[in-house]
Amino acid sequence: MRARALPIETGGEAMVFMHEDCPVARSEGFRARARVEIVANGHTLLATLYRATGELLADDEVGIPHSLLDRLSLEDGEELTVRHPQPLSSLSNVRGKLYGHRLAEPGLQAIISDIAGGRYSDVEIAAFVSGFAAQPVDVEETAALTRAMLAAGDRMQWPADRVMDKHCVGGLPGNRTTPIVVAIVAAAGLSMPKTSSRAITSPAGTADTMETMAPVALDIPAMQKVVEREGGCIVWGGSVNLSPADDVLIRIERALDIDSDAQLVASVLSKKLAAGSTHVLLDLPVGPTAKIRNSQGADALTHLLETVGTQCGLKIAAMQTDGTQPVGRGIGPALEAHDVLAVLGNKDSGPADLRERALALAAGLLELEGTSRNDARAAATSLLVEGHAEAKFLRICEAQGGFRTPGKARQTRDIVAPRPGRIAAFDNRRLARIAKLAGAPQRAAAGIVLHTRVGQMVERGEPLFTIHSESRGELDYAYTYAARNEDVVRMEAP
């Protein structure tokens, strides 16, 4: 058959199209949503088949999105072969997981290898993700999943005997400490090659925010050059093939809006190990509307992370932090980047809570490396106040491809206080929902800017937060949701 290039964006899912009257499809029994294998130029691709009607395709053509043509080194009109794929034996393990069975390491390695190789459909990956989300966490199974995810990708090595890293488990809008922490730790002379994820269920991930200031899609040689030159970097983990199954799983988790503890731990630790990290500090925000709701949940996750990390050869420390309200003012990639730059620049507009949290985490990493607690805090503060951290961050940006100023949205609208009162609480989850309805993280400048904090007194009509959006339609969606959910910012009588 012949390839036909289609201007279609599939969001990462491998899908191809054939005409409903295609004789090959009929003779081979290819039905809609069947899995097919495309072979061309020595490359193979597993994809989900969909059927087309009308004049979109001739009956001897296979419609293929441009991104998949590139993976096949295929040009529009070139010949290809379509065939049935070999059965996936690892799917029996997924079915076992759905029925409540624990998976041993060989079964997990088979599943992760097939996922990383693009042999699973989105439906099959969703079944695997759901199986873990529906069952209590098992330490040995989680460690096996971590090793399986590590084995599926590349692994970096560094000359330093201590390679620092930090990770926040998420669930707290605006908690964008990583760029500040990396800058401080690298300015202290330590090695911190940071790989970060894009957003899963939040309005921004560290990679999304960093991308508004510098390129993040670096390959391993480019990443190594940045770290050799500046001691640290902040790059997107999906571009360096360090845990290739992880970004596939994240894409499905985002669609399902779930993030199980076992897969969270395996995701975090496999990427830390693959990046060559030896010492990892974990930020666990705790609050009634954060991902971790209470100290008991934080203790359980800390134990799981530390136990699995120790089994895999990592030195782990965890820090439980305040998750009762968002950190900083901005929620959304560019808005969070503006906060980061203000803190690094020691500007009066820099959010005090973001500054304090970043300093605590940077000091925690210095302490984990061996510095005394008092000296670690003093060193971190000095590096920030004296401008060394800002200078290091800008050099990292330049080494990654050049610094750029984060953008600003074209549309804004205030949500105001309906009455006078005191700010009692924020609903982190619904604030994040508003920022996502406004377009974040896909539209980098979209999101929310907060004007109030817990405990602050406000007057009737005073702005509580401002919605930022790139389009009127998205702004209206976000505003309508916010207006219908007044208690997203809970107020008490003065």
Sum this structure up briefly:
The protein has 494 residues and is α/β, with parallel strands linked by helices. The protein has helices at residues 23-28, 66-71, 91-98, 105-116, 122-133, 139-151, 178-187, 206-211, 220-230, 244-256, 261-274, 295-311, 333-344, 352-369, 373-385, 388-400, 428-437, 472-484, and strands at 2-6, 15-19, 35-40, 43-52, 61-65, 81-83, 164-168, 192-196, 232-236, 279-286, 315-322, 330-331, 411-416, 421-426, 447-450, 457-458, 463-469, 489-492.
Descriptive tags:
494 residues, alpha/beta, Transferase, Pyrimidine Nucleoside Phosphorylase, Chain A, domain 3, 4 domains, six-stranded mixed beta sheet, four-stranded antiparallel beta sheet, 18 helices, 42% helix, EC 2.4.2.4, Thym_Pase_Put, thymidine phosphorylase activity, Pyrmidine_PPase_CS, Putative thymidine phosphorylase
What is the element layout, followed by pairings?
Layout: E1 2-6, E2 15-19, H1 23-28, E3 35-40, E4 43-52, E5 61-65, H2 66-71, E6 81-83, H3 91-98, H4 105-116, H5 122-133, H6 139-151, E7 164-168, H7 178-187, E8 192-196, H8 206-211, H9 220-230, E9 232-236, H10 244-256, H11 261-274, E10 279-286, H12 295-311, E11 315-322, E12 330-331, H13 333-344, H14 352-369, H15 373-385, H16 388-400, E13 411-416, E14 421-426, H17 428-437, E15 447-450, E16 457-458, E17 463-469, H18 472-484, E18 489-492
Parallel strand pairs: 1-5, 2-4, 7-10, 8-9, 10-11
Antiparallel strand pairs: 2-5, 3-4, 3-6, 12-15, 13-17, 14-16, 14-18, 15-17
